[in-house]
């Protein structure tokens, strides 16, 4: 036994929480010896295809956590959104999908098996409107369905404009752009607070940029978003997926490589015998109109 026995201290704090009508916080304070390992219960995730767990160590998109996918265009980011929606619907989740580039059609969703009548879509590229409408949608969903779970997708986080920037006097030296970044930071904070209250799985699609003046790459949203990201995926295009038909080469999809730039769950991945699993850093995938599949190929030759 150590110097301090916190049992009575914890009991006293829990008693004050009950008196303050904050019963949901009672279980948030305890001794470290009751800390649980990373959940493997499918109920705590939007379960994804097998390649997801093989790569990231957990069954899918975790509830009340953020998964971020960042990369250039045509690298599978929106395909990940659509796959996530399909999986979420099959598992009984509601969906709020924020689409800022107006590039995803009803047909795109339906081709992958998404029931479009069960998806609440927000379309805007104005940062303030994106977050305002998102929070209104999330609050309305849980008011109507208080016991259900929600998938929230923002596609994309780092490619919007701000009303603040529109109003700037470009000649003035005293004003600087950055309204979108500030609004995104505020929006992220409020989203995290809502995730603490409601069972929301979050998928943020982002863009990736070369660091100016230094090596490596960075994502929009800065350190705050990266800090709160539990699984971060860097997406890269490898080439066209082609097949021969009637003596001609036709394009049927895209080869991509996804690398984990952050994986909070990697250190806790274990196998059936309880041994630590060595997870891959990256996975090669092939994307077509029918979905995402694991691929052993990384070229444009079939």
Description:
By secondary structure, the protein is an alpha/beta fold. The chain folds into two domains: 35 residues; 250 residues, P-loop containing nucleotide triphosphate hydrolases (Rossmann fold, 3-Layer(aba) Sandwich). Helices cover 29% and strands 28% of the residues. A nine-stranded mixed β-sheet has the order 5-4-6-7-3-10-11-12-13, with helices on both faces. A two-stranded antiparallel ribbon has the order 1-2. A hairpin with a 2-residue loop joins strand 12 and strand 13. Helix 5 packs parallel to helix 7. About 2% of the residues have low confidence.
What's the order of the H and E elements? HEHEEHEHEHEHHEEEHEEEE
Low-confidence stretches: 173-177
Q: Identify the strand order in the major beta sheet.
A: 5-4-6-7-3-10-11-12-13
Can you identify the CATH class of the largest domain?
Alpha Beta
The percent range for helix content is 25-40%
Number of DSSP E strands: 13
Cα separation of the termini: 64 Å
